[in-house]
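Re: the 192-residue chain
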Amino acid sequence: MNTLNQPSTAFTRSLANSNGAVKVATVVFGSLLIAAATQIEVPFFPVPMTMQTFAVLLVGLLFGARLGAAAVLVYLGEAALGLPVLSGAANMATLFVKPATIGYLVGFVGAAFVAGLIVERTAGKLWGVVAAALAGEVVLMALGVAFLAYLIGAEKAVTFGFLPFVLGDALKIVLAVTVARGVGHLSLPGAR
């Protein structure tokens, strides 16, 4: 069997073989997981640190590229509809006042997609899951810091939008890989 285009784990295989209703429910669940993880805050400077990055990477690692990115897009759609799903129970209207996080939010879509794509292509092997999570984080930070640099300059963007989060994001990557590897062995009931 060619593993290049095959889902990587028992979970993603069972999800890929599920009917449309299960996929939709999974995407909605993923968006709610991201929203819940976003509300877990640790006071930090310059902004609170949340578990949002963990959840974004996790849905990419578990759901694959398309469904992982779809879950993030649904999450952003919930924020656009005015639901309080962003950090601090904010919604998209907040971004008009404080636009500094726009690049990171866009980066979430790319992070979930890239993480899912790489984990699909590496057949769920540990090194592939680690590489997928790291690549997703790189995409997220590249887009987030680039937009922040546009707003406040490159040096300040790196100083305030990247360096303070390196350790926390490294820990979230380890956690996402660990959870994805554990859940990856499970299968959805009733999958075709």
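Residues 1-7 have pLDDT under 50 and may be disordered.
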